Amino acid sequence: MAPIQQKALINCDMGEAYGNWVCGPDLELLPMIDIANVACGFHGGDPLIMMETVRNCKAHNVKIGAHPGLPDLQGFGRREMKLSPDELTAMTIYQVGALKAFLDREGVPLNHVKPHGVLYGMMARDYEVAKAVMLGIPEGVPVFGLAGTCMEQAANDLGIEFWAELYGDVKYDSKGMLVIDRKKKPWDLKDVERHVRQQLEEQSVTATDGSIVSLPLKNYPLSICCHSDSPGCVDIITTTRKVADDFNRKYGK
């Protein structure tokens, strides 16, 4: 397939520490990214960390979105839970509202909402879960998600602006779904480079079974997600940044 038509931006999950427990090197990563997805307290983050993360993102001119997850601190939001539609909507309103309070104090707009971890995977597979979560997103705020899945369908049905995501440090299965590990595994940087370049240049990905899977990105705004808790995340994001910048220069983005 042809290269993507959109400019390649980079987003990263941040503020996922809790109390004295440190998750990722957020301050080191901020100069390398365009957009941050800030944890809202359910899978990671706490009020002080949320406040500090918002201020740090603002200082680096990084756009800020809410990163709501399942209420599972111990499992870091990477274990499935069965919640009713009302619970899913309410927990999204609660988490996004908490982050927005800190954004309002700093005079920073809420850029988007991006669900975290297993919740993201559940939404990609289950339309009713996707719809319930998205009903908790404030009017006029975009949602980040996986194109060609129930996330895209629910966003379109609800009139929510949809941003498609690619992934720098997550593998895909043969159906184009993300393989979400509870604990991130290390990547060889040459594999990261190939993985990201293939997605940008060919709109496809090599799945875990070796098959080539097309990515139905259409013309949605797009960003590449990397994770601050991946082993070697600084090198992974440095590599992803270089591939994205080279791509943007090559095609005049």
Q: What's the count of strands?
A: 8
Shape: globular
Name given to the CATH homologous superfamily: Glycoside hydrolase/deacetylase
Helix percent reads: 25-40%
Broad CATH class: Alpha Beta
- In the residues, how many domains can be counted? 1
Largest sheet: 6 strands, parallel
Averaged pLDDT: 96
Poorly predicted runs? none
CATH topology: TIM Barrel
The total count of helices amounts to 8
Q: Roughly what fraction of the amino acids lie in strands?
A: 5-15%
Task: Tell me the structural class.
Answer: alpha/beta
Radius of gyration: 17 Å
Organism: Monascus purpureus (Red mold)
Protein name: Lactam utilization protein lamB
GO biological process, one term: carbohydrate metabolic process
3D architecture notes:
With 253 residues, the protein is of the alpha/beta class. It has one domain: TIM Barrel. 38% of the residues lie in helices and 15% in strands. It contains 8 helices and 8 strands. The strands form 2 sheets. The chain has a 6-stranded parallel sheet with strand order 3-2-1-8-5-4. Strands 6-7 form a two-stranded antiparallel ribbon. Helix 3 packs parallel to helix 5, helix 5 packs across helix 6 and helix 7 packs parallel to helix 8. It is globular and about 40 Å long. The protein starts with 8 loop residues before the first strand and ends with a helix.
